[in-house]
Amino acid sequence: MNVLLEVTNLSLNYGGAAALAGVSLQIYKGEMVALIGANLRSFAPSPASSGRLPAGSLSPGAISSDSNPMRFAISASARSPKAASYLQH
Amino acid sequence: MLDNVIVGALHRTANVAMARSHAEEILAKLGLAWKRDLPAAALTLPDQKRLEVARALATKPKLLLLDEAMAGLRPTECDEMVAVLREINQRDGITILLIEHVMRAVMALAEKLIVLHHGGIVGQGTPGDVARQPAVVASYLGESSEL
Question: How many CB atoms are closer than 10 A to CB B17?
Fold first, then answer.
């Protein structure tokens, strides 16, 4: 199977709390993958943070799609033709 | 509703007629064709959720990232959304990454489960395997889990 999305050593902090601490994962083409985790009330290491990363805020680490590196240093670049994001109701 | 999906389709083409045609196709696939002229604000929550998926699908994604798409749905509505997503994955071959707290949907859909705790991955594998991993039980599922 081919890797469609690869995340390498990604970290994200909210204040002093680590939402993502050096996370690496691979999503293969055609897979149905679920990411779960506790949503804490205040300092929340939340799985939703991982989903928001490609839409804007980022940290050291790397995301690649189809082996092509994707960079999302600013939210404007997340509006590139390779990534679409829609707000939910 | 149709206009919402056309916005997604315009991500791939500047031709409005083509975008409209693609949007109509997506709405039909999701069983929403007959509601196409309703205002999005008038839809029920399950239909609004389905519209979100339709809008995203209209962009012709290779990978669909869904952030808590089941939130607020009743069990039967959740099961309907599960069926929609399974079809998108299996019929259209679109890879799906769900970020989800509704375990009913997670266990029904996911072929691979990744569990985060304090920012790190504490378990991953098939849902059945992950549910038996001590670190996952301790950090997320709890001892009384029936999974």
Answer: 8
- Residues of B with Cβ-Cβ distance to A31 under 8 angstroms: 95-96, 111-112
Which residues 48-67 of chain B have a CB within 8 Å of chain A? 48-49, 52, 55-56, 59, 61-63, 65-67
Whole-Å CA distances, B22 to A2, A40, B58: 28, 40, 7
CA B76/CA B56 separation, integer angstroms: 23
- pLDDT tens digit string along B46-56? 999 999 999 99
pLDDT tens digits, one per residue of A9-42 = 888 777 777 778 888 999 999 999 999 887 533 3
Report CA-CA distances (Å) from B139 to A39, A55, B80, B92, B146: 11, 27, 29, 35, 15
Q: Where are the alpha helices (DSSP H) in B30-100?
A: 45-57, 75-92
As for the ipTM of the complex, it is 0.86
pTM over cut 0.90: no
> B95 and A25: CB-CB below 8 Å?
no
